Amino acid sequence: MTDFDAIDALLAEAKQEVPLPPAEERRALREELNVSRTQLAKVLEVSASTVGGWESGREPSGEVREKYAYFLEGARTKLAAADPVDDVADVEEKAGFDVADVEEEAGLDDVDVLSEPRPCVLCGRPARHQVEGFPQHLDSTDCAAGDPAPPVPPAAEEAPSGPAAPTARAGVKVTYV
To answer: Rounded to 10 degrees, what is the CA torsion of 36, 39, 42, 48?
Structure first.
């Protein structure tokens, strides 16, 4: 084995640690889901005091760190989904600007804010805006953030079945008697 082979082997085995949120956020995420330290410790196969240490600033390592990071990310996702912004006024207050003013400046005066998210016509993920009657994301990165949803086939019309069933062709209107 050459010196370079040994270095390559070392690099192949090396892993970067998974980033974790600040210690105070770790505890808040767990508590907001009503998960006890004991419950979390059991699934991570550590003691409840170990979980307490992580929530006080100690850092886990190795495979248990990856599992803990996975739990924390899942907790963030679940809590974010459970607490959607309900009102345009909430968005404006948090962002510090008037959504209508920004839409007008950007030439988006035909944009409506939906009271409940609906599937985006471009990606299928929940969208909070509607442009010219179609729910969609205003920022293309919101569509790009997830895998595109499979296209939804149009509703099939009731057609007679059997060997003589007519088929539609471009520019031809099919009627059934």
So the answer is: 10
